[in-house]
Amino acid sequence: MTTSSRTPLGVSLVDGGANVALFSSTAERVEFCRFDEDGTEHRTELTQRTGYTFHDIVPDVTVGTRYGFRVHGAWDPANGLRHNGAKLLLDPYATAIDGEYEWGQALFGHDMNEPEQIDETDSASAMPRSIVADRSFDWQGDTRLGTDLADTVFYEVHVKGFTKQHPDVPEEIRGTYAGMAHPAAIKHLVDLGVTAVELLPTHQFVQDSTLVDKGLRNYWGYNSIGFFAPHNEYSSAGTAGQQVAEFKEMVKALHAAGLEVIMDVVYNHTAEGNHMGPTLSFKGIDNASYYRLVEGDEANYFDTTGTGNSLNVGHPTALGLIMDSLRYWVEEMHVDGFRFDLATTLTRQDGEAEKHSAFLDIIHQDPVLREVKMIAEPWDTAGYQVGGFPADWSEWNGKYRDDLRAFWRGDEGALADAVQRVLGSPDVYEGSRRSPLCSVDFVTAHDGFTLADLTMYAEKHNEANGEDNNDGES
Q: From 408's CA, which of 19, 136, 233, 378 has a CA 20 to 30 Å away?
């Protein structure tokens, strides 16, 4: 008879079912909730506990099983506790997620009119489901490409936007992983001369209520909830786990054309927001382990991201989640590296940015992760850290963008700074004996001007976006 184990976290198929494991240092009990096609829910309590991990062998779990968790415990927001057994929660380790959110009171652990009070409306009918995905795949000898930084040209690209209107890509796969893998799309990339595609966020993300209420969508994807799951809306083959194989096929096709795959990843925060945000996963599982809370005011979240919360990288469970996710995308999905959104937040263990933080040190020592490209967006809302990351890291060099643009506009005194950028920013990197290859030089990105607008306008003109020209960089 198979015995359950506290590792690995998440759902792992075994003979007759699955080993299910969920970490929570504050829960009193945990239920695994399996759903039939018609929505009927079957609950199984995880009866084993090792340390702070609840685990058990659950029968009748197979590829394609839809599931979630209910985590029971104290509701005491003033002390950082937000357990609510009425809320179905996504598995932090789910490799696929299916369905959408139906925004309303049910998705919030608190009463929206009285935030200190618990809301006991069941959320299952309003929540997506975690999916047990088929992890088998024939890579046909595919391996990481390992292009030298000196020869690397990154091309930031949006999976949906890149092929959504491409006339040579079949309409049924436009805007999907399969669209990115189509020969017409790949030919365009190869003809450009780039060596790597940097995919804008493809972790499962949330279409938040603020946008949905306005009839808008979250195009960019910087609102993650599933750090192991490819975003389901970019799949042409289906969303009940098929997105995993389709993502792998895309990577294999890009590699075959000599193109590396870099993921833009958002580990600094999640879509659960602040104390007024929804309860979708981490908040209801172990709020204080996964999020940084304000010391002495644990009902509120310490936020250096501008999104309402920051992941608690000072806690081994949150840090372990990030590392497990990174290794999964390298080993299981064959990606070649990562660009870390607001990377400085990930170095703030106790508030200050630390060059020798646990996050950076673990990556440096990890035999899998230290071999792939690591690129920092070296700032957050609390500080600008260009030049402040370790020697093995590359950095988005915002100074290059800003100084080259100033020179193009003819700003007074811009020439001297522009020269420093073209020479590899020695004023930024030489003092710490870092190579110019640490600098990822760019002039346009998703949060600024298009290349055409950069050369035509002194100020942005995003009036058509419906946000009074307040979005994006100036």
A: 378
Judged against a pLDDT cut of 70, whether residue 356 lies above it is answered with: yes
Residues 6+ apart with CB under 8 A from 193: 153
- Token readout for 369 is 């992760």
Partnered with residue 72 across adjacent β-strands are 29
Tokens 């092929």 found at: 163
Asked if 392 contacts 437 with a C-beta cutoff of 8 angstroms, the reply is no
Chain-centre distance for alpha carbon 8? 20
Tens-digit pLDDT profile for residues 271-299: 999 999 999 999 999 999 999 999 999 99
In this structure, the dihedral spanned by the alpha carbons of residues 354, 355, 361 and 366, taken in order and rounded to 10 degrees, is 130
Q: Which CA distances in Å does 184 have to 138, 158, 180, 245, 335?
A: 23, 16, 9, 20, 21
Written as six digits, the tokens of 112 are 């929206």
Over residues 303-331, the mean pLDDT reads: 96
84-to-37, 71, 444, 474 alpha-carbon distances in Å: 25, 7, 44, 43
Beta-bridge partners for 75: 82
Options 3.40.50.720, 2.60.40.10, 3.20.10.10, 3.40.50.2000; CATH of 10-131: 2.60.40.10
Q: How far apart are CA 424 and CA 412, in angstroms?
A: 22
- The stretch 149-178 carries a mean pLDDT of 97
Q: Point out which residues pair with 199 in neighbouring strands.
A: 157, 263
Which residues are identified as catalytic? 341, 377
With 0.85 as the threshold, say if the pTM is over it.
yes
Quote the CA–CA distance of 386 and 441 in Å, as a whole number: 12
The mean pLDDT value for 329-343 works out to 97
DSSP codes of every residue in 4-60:
P-S-SSEEEEETTEEEEEEE-SS-SEEEEEEE-TT--EEEEE--EEETTEEEEEEES
Residue 166 contacts residue 279 (beta carbons within 8 Å): no
- CATH architecture of the domain formed by 149-465: Alpha-Beta Barrel (3.20)
Reported as a pLDDT band with limits 50, 70 and 90, residue 1 is: low
Nearest to 254 by CA among 336, 325, 331, 172: 336
Q: Within the chain, which residue ranges are assigned CATH 2.60.40.10?
A: 10-131
Give the pair of three-digit tokens for residue 221. 């994807």
Please give the angle made by the CA atoms of 56, 272 and 21, to the nearest 5 degrees. Answer: 10
Mean per-residue pLDDT for 73-79? 98
In the chain, CATH 3.20.20.80 covers 149-465
